[in-house]
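quick one, 104 residues, struct below
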Amino acid sequence: MPVFKGSQQSLKRFLDRASHWPDSLSRTIAGQVYVEFMINELGQVRNASVVRSFHPLASTEALRLVQLLDGRFTPGRVNGQPVAMKLTLPISFGTQPVSIRKQL
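---
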């Protein structure tokens, strides 16, 4: 499975620092946007798309954040060789934790 360079906690810190709450989105709502993307053999983000969201403005911000992750992953490996793998990243707008799930 691809790994964010650093740790799961450093991924959360990176997303928290880089995140910008959309101006026209009320701060009284919260939720998660699920972004699916590939990490290629070089650790680059490819083909990011929103698979579930609570608001279109949050979707736009989540896609922007995922593009900032480009090159910040160590690629997954199979039999010692780097391979492309699909991930789903839930990005929280509010207080929910960040985690990464591998898609088979």
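The chain has one domain: 3-21+34-103.
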